[in-house]
Amino acid sequence: MRSTILIHYGNLHWSTIDFLRDNPAAGYDELRTLLGFFMLCQGAFGTFLFVDPSDWKVAGQAIGIGNASTAVFQLQRTMGATMSGGGFLEPITAPNVVSAIYLNGITQDPTSYSIDSATGLVTFETAPRSGLSITADFTYYCRCRFTEDKYDFENFMFRLWHLKKLTFISVRS
């Protein structure tokens, strides 16, 4: 399967091109799997989580500075850190695995904080002291939706189908 990634302001856009087999008896069911998933998402209406194989994890990502009163911090990733001003901080609202949270580089006990997997918010039991750097190691999903409500499938050979283009885009929630 080939994949192309295009960047639009505020979103990533994926496009895939491939052939799909339709022979469930032989264990090949890509066409029905894709169609079923597309219908489950209600076309372009519903969202789904996607792991971008080239961009799915960060290590030592800054998520805040303690001030002794704030206990909730948003997981985020830095896009273009070498740019003047430090680049763009993108909120991560669909974390997969948060392997560690650090205060000034010291790994914190996972019982001292919780992570909301639906929002990416990290909540500490006790607000970190003033000036403490809060960083995290984690993997994440991109929340996406299909860009179209219909796609054209072509049956070009017995039990082989072609889909010229299937596109989906990242969305913010």
What percent of residues adopt helix (DSSP H or I)? under 10%
> What are the low-pLDDT stretches, counting only 5+ consecutive residues below 50?
5-9
- Strand coverage percent: over 45%
- Whole-number radius of gyration? 20 Å
Structural class by SSE content: mainly beta
Number of strands: 15
Describe this structure in words.
With 173 residues, the protein is mainly β. It folds into 2 domains: 2-51 and 144-170, no CATH class; 57-140, no CATH class. The protein has 1 helix and 15 strands. The protein has one helix spanning 30-40; strands spanning 2-8, 11-21, 48-50, 57-65, 72-74, 76-79, 88-91, 95-103, 106-107, 113-115, 121-124, 133-140, 142-146, 153-157, 160-170. Strands 1, 2, 3, 13, 14 and 15 form a 6-stranded antiparallel β-sheet that branches. The protein has a 4-stranded antiparallel β-sheet with strand order 4-12-8-9, with no helix packed on it. It has a 3-stranded antiparallel β-sheet with strand order 5-11-10, with no helix packed on it. A hairpin with a 2-residue loop joins strand 14 and strand 15 (160-170). The longest helix has 11 residues, at 30-40. The two termini are 28 Å apart. The model is unreliable at 5-9 (pLDDT under 50).
